[in-house]
Design a protein that fits this description.
This protein is mainly α. Helix content is 63%, strand content 5%. The chain has a two-stranded antiparallel ribbon.
Length: 155
C-alpha cells in the first residue's frame, strides 16, 4: 500500500471520527426501532373534523436528527451522490451501504443527508429511514470503517 493511500485514509478518519462518535450513541435505539413506525398522527381535541393531521415524532428520533444536523455529516449536494452512483431505491441504498469502505464515506454521507435534510420538508423520510434501517446501516458502516483504520469506538 502506498504511503499516500495510508495518509489519505488517516485524513478521512480524522475528518469523520469526532462527528461519528457524537451520533453512534443512537445505534442501540435505531436497532431497537428497526421495522417499527416512530411517528404517529396527532389527533388532539377534535382536530380531525377541522384540520389536517400532522405527525408527532419519537423524541429520540428528533434528538438524533438534531445531533446529526450539528455535525459535518451532511452534504447539501447529496442528489449528485445518488445520480453518480445510480441509487434509485431503498434496496440500492442498502446494497451500496454494504459495499462502502473508508474511501466511500462521501456516499454514506450523501445517503444520510437525503434522509436528514429531505425529512425537513418530507417528514415521512425520517420514519422511513428508521423503518428501513437506512440510518442504522449508514451509522454502523461509518463506525466500522473508522474502527478498521483507527481504534474501536464505544456506543
Amino acid at each position: 500500500m502506498e504511503k499516500e493511500d495510508i495518509a489519505y485514509r488517516q485524513q478521512i478518519v480524522n475528518e469523520y471520527k469526532t462527528d461519528i462518535e457524537r451520533v453512534i450513541r443512537y445505534l442501540p435505539w435505531l436497532e431497537e426501532k428497526a421495522g417499527q413506525n416512530v411517528s404517529e398522527a396527532f389527533e388532539g381535541s377534535g382536530i380531525k373534523e377541522s384540520s389536517i393531521t400532522f405527525p408527532v415524532y419519537d423524541s429520540t428520533l428528533m434528538s438524533f436528527i438534531k445531533e446529526v444536523q450539528r455535525t459535518g455529516l451532511l452534504d447539501r449536494n447529496y442528489v449528485y451522490v445518488y445520480s453518480r452512483n445510480r441509487i434509485r431505491t431503498v434496496a440500492d441504498e442498502l446494497q451500496i451501504i454494504d459495499r462502502c469502505g473508508i474511501m466511500e464515506m462521501d456516499i454514506l454521507k450523501g445517503i444520510l443527508s437525503k434522509y436528514v435534510m429531505g425529512g425537513m420538508t418530507k417528514g415521512r423520510l425520517w420514519t422511513e429511514a428508521v423503518y428501513n434501517q437506512v440510518f442504522l446501516k449508514v451509522l454502523t458502516k461509518m463506525k466500522e470503517n473508522i474502527e478498521f483504520w483507527d481504534k474501536p469506538m464505544t456506543t
